[in-house]
Amino acid sequence: MSIGEKIKELRQKKGVSQYEMAEDLFMAQSSIGAWETNRNEPTIFNAILLADYFDVTLDELCGRCKK
């Protein structure tokens, strides 16, 4: 699963729209859309922000699993 797919999954699980998420995080909705469609990837700063927003670890956000 790509990071974009994971962001979309977590957003939907949280029950918020791209617009609501963008408002909560003080960013453009187009950024959320670009991440979810894998046209762009979040910076490390934004990845940390997203992990905190979704209450997951960076490993979980990036799809990294234990071996």
Features:
67 residues; mainly alpha; 5 helices
User: How many beta-strand segments?
Assistant: 0
Secondary structure class reads mainly alpha
H/I helix tally: 5
Percent helix range: 55-70%
Q: N-to-C terminal Cα separation, in Å?
A: 16 Å
Q: C-alpha Rg, in Å?
A: 11 Å
The oligomeric state is single chain
Mean pLDDT: 94
Low-confidence stretches: none
H and E order? HHHHH
Strand content: under 5%
Shape: globular
Largest sheet: none
General description of the model:
The longest helix has 12 residues, at about 5-15. The protein has helices at about 5-15, 20-25, 30-35, 45-55, 60. Helix 1 (about 5-15) packs across helix 3 (about 30-35) and helix 2 crosses helix 3. The model has no long low-confidence stretch (mean pLDDT about 95). Helix content is about 65%, strand content about 0%. The protein contains five helices and no strands. The protein is an all-alpha fold and about 70 residues long.
In short:
The chain is mainly alpha-helical. 66% of the residues lie in helices and 0% in strands. It starts with a helix and ends in a 5-residue tail after the last helix.
